[in-house]
């Protein structure tokens, strides 16, 4: 891999970006009036894209339990500013413990990308689906792993180039996984066909905010177990003193947005954790999609001066 990058992944990149909402009423940007209209996305999508002419890798981000995709706008724009198209579907508004519908919907949306996405992007922007990353936060992280593992009869036609779990969670505790369970409790049991994996954890995720609420990322079903079951190459970073929802936007509106400040043990502010998650995602994507591992190696070696949080733990399987 190359080691020539001069950017700082934890700060905004060089690309100007825009935030789009795509749904069944969205108009195509690249279809001629006489042409047959491409299919609309299966779910409403929030898209962060560079606006400069070019071809860009595509990253899908799956939201956490009962959260809105709009709560990740700042994180998405951060990653997109480094030359990536970010897509966040709204998988549901209300859901119970079973994640099968989310797994099915995610596979359907991924399969739609190759026939629909390009038509809805700005005319000067082209998605490079040969470089496709699947990521998810919390329950969305579990869903991302389930789709990548092709475990439950739903898989994507598109090859997943990298897989990212942002504080992934599979239930409320060991023995209390949400159906269908993804974790097997067997080390290195995830057969992902050598797909590179990044797992990011929150240091406060295992801590309950108060006696009334359980931890948001309980031991036995959180990032540690997801990483333990990965095969190489896999990277695991844990941010000290930040919580399970600290990568969300600074201002998350509505009842669900306000509750995101109350349910989990949080850090003092969200920006450092959001910048950390964004920078880790960017450095990982640059390494494994673009062949530039400079920043990822610097972070691993503890010599990257721009890391905005204290890294509590680090592990790698090669």
Describe the structure.
The protein has 318 residues and is α/β, with parallel strands linked by helices. The chain contains 7 helices and 9 strands, in the order βββαβαβαββαβαααβ. It has helices spanning 73-80, 100-120, 139-149, 223-228, 254-259, 271-289, 294-301, and strands at 17-22, 45-50, 54-62, 85-89, 125-137, 162-166, 197-202, 234-239, 311-317. Strands 1-2-4-3-5-6-7-8-9 form a 9-stranded mixed sheet, with helices on both faces. The longest helix is centred in the middle third of the chain and has 21 residues, at 100-120. The model has no long low-confidence stretch (mean pLDDT 94). Pathway: Porphyrin-containing compound metabolism; chlorophyll degradation.
Separation, N- and C-terminal Cα atoms: 14 Å
Order of helices and strands: EEEHEHEHEEHEHHHE
Tell me the structural class: alpha/beta
| Helix proportion range | 10-25%
Estimate the global geometry from the Cα principal axes. globular
Low-pLDDT sequence parts? none
Adjacency order of strands in the biggest sheet: 1-2-4-3-5-6-7-8-9
The number of distinct helices, counting runs of at least 4 residues, comes to 7
Main sheet properties = 9 strands, mixed
What is the tally of beta strands?
9
Tell me briefly what this model is.
By secondary structure, this protein is an alpha/beta fold. It is built from seven helices and nine strands, in the order E-E-E-H-E-H-E-H-E-E-H-E-H-H-H-E.
